[in-house]
Amino acid sequence: MISRVGALLLVFVVWPLAAAGPDFRLQQIGKGVWAAIVNDAGLAGGNAGFVIGDDGVAVIDTFQDPRPARALLSEIRKLTPLPVRFVVNTHYHLDHVNGNDVFAAAGATIVAHRNVRAWMRTENIKMLDPPVTPEKKARVQSLPLPSLVYDSHVDLYLGSRRINVRYYPGHTGGDSVVSVPDAQVVFCGDMLWKQHVPNLIDASTGAWVESLDAMQKDYGASTWVPGHGDVANGQDVLVFRRYLADLRAGVRREQGAGKSGAALADALMPGLRSSYGKWGFFNDYAKVGIEQTEQELLGKKRFPPISSER
Ligand SMILES: [Zn+2]
Predict the structure, then answer these.
(1) What is the 189 CA–ligand 1 centroid distance (Å)?
(2) Cα(244) to centroid(ligand 1), Å
(3) Residue 1 alpha carbon to ligand 1 centre in Å
(4) Distance 48 CA to ligand 1 centre (A)
(5) pTM score of the predicted model
(6) DSSP string of 59-78, one letter each residue
(7) What is the mean predicted confidence (pLDDT) over 288-295?
(8) pLDDT band, very low/low/confident/very high, at 1 (cuts 50, 70, 90)
């Protein structure tokens, strides 16, 4: 019989926690399944994660910079000698793909929705922080592209371990949600933000709300890894859905009252601030998100052009 202390030690051995430096921390969320939760003030940008299977590893997203990507690879190396066989880029934004070269050099096949391949080296120019130097542009224009693309869904196998990659519209029009059915874990990329105001630069918020409803149905009782913020649960998905729905309803209401532009944003900001002002990125994305949603609801928003390669 194992003593209580012994049992706790055993749990600790089975579920190790690893410190991974200033840019991100690793959190084990299932057998062989790890979330890499970023520090917003560090270099990593967007959350990542990885799944260790029977014969290899799949990595979900590669951060905003090759330095934390190399740190992630070395954390994986501490846990398993198995090769990194796949990287899934959940979408094209730079904070999720700018470590691709680290994993491509390690032999991984990069997998993504078809539009990610079309947009990674072009649309990402607009994601660069100013000043946009020739060096930064050249880096974007040489990002390793996905070499395996899909349209609606694709399954990856790490030996007997299945990983489902599914397209959901809303955040960019090329977003993948990656689930590990045997661990009831789902990596949402930027289809889910936990207590962080989302970047709506490419968003179709109406489709996004519908996708969140579909995801709740599809992944119900899972552990949810958002693209930004801590590991989440089903309640967090509802809270995030409410942000998008509140924003849409508010923009519609003010448009109905004849407001537009700065006046419309000024009318909505106090309400958003009182409900969501403590969220990360509020000052970065709340106001511009109102403007982007106004354009969307007017039918005037510019979206990245859908890939024509078939
Ligand atoms: Zn992101």
Answers:
(1) 7
(2) 16
(3) 47
(4) 10
(5) 0.93
(6) EE---SSHHHHHHHHHHHHH
(7) 98
(8) very low
